[in-house]
Each structure stands twice: as C-alpha cells, then as structure tokens.
Amino acid sequence: MNTKLFFIYLAIMAGSTYLIRAIPFAAIKGKIENKYFKSFLTYIPYAVLTAMTLPACLYATDYIISAAIGLLVAVIFAIKNKSLTTVAITACSAVFISEMIIKNLL
Prior knowledge:
It is a single chain. By secondary structure, this protein is mainly α. It is built from four helices and no strands. It has helices spanning about 5-25, 35-60, 65-80, 85-105. Helix 3 runs antiparallel to helix 4. The model has no long low-confidence stretch (mean pLDDT about 90).
C-alpha cells in the first residue's frame, strides 16, 4: 500500500470515529433526564462488548463444544463473583482439558 493511500484511509477513519463521538456532545446540550434513555446508554458498552467477544470465544478453539464448555465455566465462576484472573484461568483450563479429551476420543 502506498503512503498517500494509507493517509487517506487514516483520515477517513479518524474523521468518522471523531464524528461518532462528537455529534452526541454537539446535539445534546442539557442533562439527560429520561431514566429509560439513561439506562439504555448505561448498558450500551456491555452489549457491544458482548457482541464482539462472544463470537470470538466460540470460534477460537478447534471444537465449538470445548469453547462452549469454557464459556460455561467462565459464566459460572463469574456468577460466583470470582476474580477475573480466576475466571480466565479456570475457563482456559476447561477448554484445554476438553480439547485434550475430544482429540483423544476422535
């Protein structure tokens, strides 16, 4: 890719990213009072993060079954309020063990 084309792409990306963030600040002058809209805005980051992470979790392994097992283990440990390190280690261990079992069965 030549340098000129790269900087054109970079400028378009930076401009679109800036506009997405700047338009709400320019459009909404006062404080948001509607509790439903505030609640909606509160949960947007979690929904976007889940939408980006969940498919990656399910397709990051050789077998979708081992990925589902790891996801289930992670959810169980997260519901039990374990630390992020504990959740990550147990989920990775569950995926590793289930991958080994599946590979030995096939």
